[in-house]
Amino acid sequence: MERTLVVLAHPHLAASRVNAALADGAREMDGILVHDLYAAYPDLQIDVAREQRLLRDHDHVVLQFPFYWYSAPALLKKWLDEVFEHGFAYGTGGDALRGKTLRVAASVGGGEELYRPGGLNRFPVVDLLRPFDATANLTGMPYLPPFLIHGSHAVDDDELAAYVRRYQAELVTRSGTAPGDQQPVSSAA
Ligand SMILES: Cc1cc2nc3c(=O)[nH]c(=O)nc-3n(C[C@H](O)[C@H](O)[C@H](O)COP(=O)(O)O)c2cc1C
């Protein structure tokens, strides 16, 4: 069975509604490891060798987080800076991630209508996430369309339950899926 690593980065998971529900849904599934970065590294000191072992042991990588300042919470950036190092993720001999898929799963406070030209936030979230797309490209990882929950504060319990089911379905391995085959998930399921 193919294995999926969900790298969860939420600095206040105890106060989270959306990411906590998604993480619980992911944990119910076989072949999926939810790795809570802020729980693993409360002092923010990342064990790079451990993280690289985890990545080597999985076929698919999902970066799950609440959208903070048009990006990911800080520890996920630090994780990328330190774990995706030369000789591991890129450069000479740096092919450890090649062929593993990369996908972002993010809850976004603002509604989709705010994320478009002329809207308050000007750019679609898929565009703001391009650094992840480019990172996937450089590391040889097929980049799958982001799983997005817009208007995360306004999602009611039924919608959240539907999103969790949708997330679980999206997490099911689809080996052979070509990047770009699917549309971003951005409206209530
Ligand atoms: C520090 C911080 C920065 C945030 N930045 C954004 C942002 O740039 N765009 C946005 O739409 N929502 C933003 N939000 C709202 C979060 O995305 C929202 O609280 C989160 O998706 C809720 O998920 P949760 O229930 O898992 O905590 C921000 C929230 C915080 C605390």
From TrEMBL:
Kindly state which keywords UniProt assigns to this record, in alphabetical order.
Oxidoreductase
The GO molecular function terms of this record are: electron transfer activity; FMN binding; NAD(P)H dehydrogenase (quinone) activity
| Pfam families named in the record | Flavodoxin_2
- Domain Flavodoxin-like fold residue range list: 3-170
Protein name (record)? Oxidoreductase
